[in-house]
Each structure stands twice: as C-alpha cells, then as structure tokens.
Amino acid sequence: MSTIIRGDKLTLSHYLLSHLRDSNIQAELNLVISDIADAGKKIAHEVQRSGLLDLHGAAGGKNIHAEEVQKLDDRSNEIVKSILSENEQIVGLASEEEKDVVDVSGGRTTGFIVAFDPLDGSSNIDINATVGTIFSVLPSWADIRADFLQPGRSQLASGYVLYGSSTVFVFTVGKGVHEFTLDPDNGEFILTQENIKIPETAKYISYNEGNKTKFRGSEAKAIDKLVKNGGSSRYIGALVADFHRTLLKGGIFLYPAVSSDGGYIGKLRMQYEVKPLAHVMHEAGGVALINNENAMEVAPDELHERVPFVFGDKKIVNKYQKYRYDT
Ligand code: AHG
Ligand code: MN
Ligand code: MN
Fold this sequence. Notes:
Mean pLDDT: 93
Number of helices: 8
Order of helices and strands: HHEEHEEEEHEEEEEHHEEEEHEEEEH
Number of strands: 19
Low-confidence stretches: 1-6
Distance between the termini: 52 Å
Bound molecules: 2,5-anhydro-1,6-di-O-phosphono-D-glucitol, manganese (II) ion
Helix content: 25-40%
Radius of gyration: 19 Å
C-alpha cells in the first residue's frame, strides 16, 4: 500500500518506504537510492548552469578509457563519490572516471558496492542536449574488487538520472521500473510512472550509422533488413537518453562490436552502462544482449570491460537475431 501525500503527489522518499517494505527489499537500500537521487539533484543543478559556471569543455586529461574527460564528468564524479562515500551501508565504489575501485569500507566487510557512470553522454554537454548518471548496486561480502565482477542478475538496484527537458530518476530494485520527475519548484522527485513496460509496437532503430561499415557483416545485414521492414531512425549519442526513449517508446538500440586493429571491440562499459541498463530493460519486460547472451547472465572479466550491447522490446530484438542468422 502506497502512502499518498500532498494530494496525489507521491514523493520518492515516501514511495521508497512503502515500495521497499511491500517488496520485501532490504530497507538499507532505501538510503542508497535516496543518496543517488540527491547526487542527481546536485548534478542537475550544475548541468543546468554549466554554460554560466564555465563547466563546458574538456578538463584537460584522459580517463582510463583513453577518452578526453569533460569538466562536468569530473564534477559529477566528485559529487557522486562524496555523497556515496558518506553512506555507511556502502563499502566500495567503482566509477567510469576512476582507475581503480574506491574502498570506502572503513574496515567494514559487508555492505553495498556501487558502480556508476557519473555523466553519460558527455559529448552532449556543450550543446545543451540530454545527459545522465547511471548506477548499479551490488552486495559485497569480503572482496570488494572481486564482488564488482558479479553478473547483472546479482544487482540489487539499478537505474539512472536523466538531465533532459526535465530531470527524471528511473530505477528498479527488481520489482518493476519506476520514474520520478524532479519538481523544480520544491526540489522533490515525484512519482510520474509506475511499473513501466516497454511497448512492443514502436519501430525505432537506434545505432551510430557512421560505424556501420565496421560492423560484422551479419549484424550490418540484419540492421538493413530491420530498416527495410519499416522503422524510423533515432540516435541521440547519449546511451542513457537513447535508453530512456527506447524504454518509453519501444524499438531497438544497437552498439555492436566495431572492427579495429585488434579485432572486433565493443564500446559500452559493462559495469557502468550495460549491466545497470540491462537490469532496467529486463524489469520493463524487454531484453538486453551481450553478443548472443542475455546480458543479465554475463559476468564481467574486469572492471573496465567494454562489450557490444543490444536491447529493446522482445519482438524486435528476436527479429534482429533471426535476421542475423538467416541465410
Ligand atoms: P560517456 O559520455 O559516458 O563516455 O559515454 C558515451 C557513450 C554513450 O553514452 C553513447 O551511447 C556512446 O558513447 C556514443 O558513442 P558514439 O559516439 O561512438 O556513437
Ligand atoms: Mn557513458
Ligand atoms: Mn561518462
């Protein structure tokens, strides 16, 4: 039973209390999710003022993925780290912007570990387009580093905060996917969609067309066939935004492996992007694949691993898989 406050507006904190209790989920997760929402509010504040606060552009260094770090990547990383490291339930953090796991256990051996992409889609910052923060919460018993390498199905919670025309917080604790929208008048996240299910009717196809000549032949052929069968193209270039559209409107997103000197390599990061979004997609009734496997069943080999990633509604993803192997 949910508690309704202020008319029909249900705030995140009230929802968490009732939802987690009704779902038999560890109450301590409540604080982790609230902290992520708080970090999201702070980042939203900076994103909205980035042009005024001289937060556009590069910070002047490269991260572990050899990508140019943007000023807002750094700011967002610091915000998430400082808030989560104060949470006594959390023992370890892994960030796309950190070389190694950050131990915040203070000697405690069990608790939550959180992996996050502090700012996804950072090429969109300077043009005022949508960016977001993605997170994944796992249990940890002893070895923080090893525990990050659990498969997607071990996640206790995951989701994202999207900084778009509104700031929305979308999460799952394994009992449905819910969306909260930040009310700018009072700084509260308010429930706007409960138990989101991906529609199976829309036909958006989302991938970086500039990479297509570098995809494996079977994948390029299957994409051509999907397009031929009718479908509009959409690609924002910020995974979190492409994901949110796919979740609400349906269709398929693909970031297949791209050929390079060392063979075929994926771009998207298993810990910070793929695992959490696969969890949300799965909970929304969709499907997410790494190569041909259910992304929820795949365990990362290493912290910063990159993988190919496909997700969408079941119908269109099945069609894509069929086209790949049809002769
Ligand atoms: P990040 O900004 O966290 O480094 O992630 C960028 C990722 C992802 O958001 C997006 O889907 C993808 O890069 C876009 O890559 P391309 O520019 O190669 O299409
Ligand atoms: Mn990212
Ligand atoms: Mn990022």
